[in-house]
Amino acid sequence: MTDKNKKQFGVWLDSQHAIVVGKKENDAENFEVLAHEKVVHHEKDGNESAANHSEITELNKFFKNITSHMQNVDEIHVTGTGTAQEQFIKFLSETPQYKNSVAKESTSNKMSNENLIKYITTQFN
Fold first, then answer.
1. Domains located in the chain, CATH noted
2. Cα–Cα distance for residue pair 82/105, rounded to 1 Å
3. Which pLDDT does position 49 carry in this prediction?
């Protein structure tokens, strides 16, 4: 399979926000922003255990919302701040649909949509 035919995606994320970059059409040449996702927080009351469980549930829902924009992934480059990208790659490796995808990661500060598209393009060239 040539690089042109591979389904490649890039994701910039932190613990609150994600930007998904990919090619809309299978034969498209250029990457573009496919989606922005945010963590949806729920009211937390109760004990620490319930709050922790709620946080894990919110994070998993956040990751599922991100992956809803990426079908049949061959390669993905995940970048961002903190440990969110490591957690997301672990989520992908534990999800049957994505476990055979090649995932790479890097750390980067938040950037504009245009700069993110350029950055992801260089990661796959």
1. 3-123 (3.30.420.60)
2. 12
3. 74
Number of C-beta neighbours around residue 11 at 10 A: 31
Structure tokens at 16: 């609150």
State residue 118's pLDDT score.
Answer: 96
Tell me the two tokens of residue 68. Answer: 């809803």
Q: Please list, in sequence order, all residues whose beta carbon lies within 8 angstroms of the beta carbon of residue 48, skipping any fewer than 6 positions away.
A: none
Closest CA to 107 of 74, 83, 75, 125: 83
Of 19, 116, 114, the residue nearest 62 (C-alpha): 19
The encoded tokens of residue 73 equal: 């992934």
Residue 61 has pLDDT above 60, yes or no: yes
Residue-wise burial string across 36-73, b where 16 or more C-beta atoms lie within 10 A, e elsewhere: ebebeeeeeeeeeeeeeebeeebbeebbebbbebbeeb
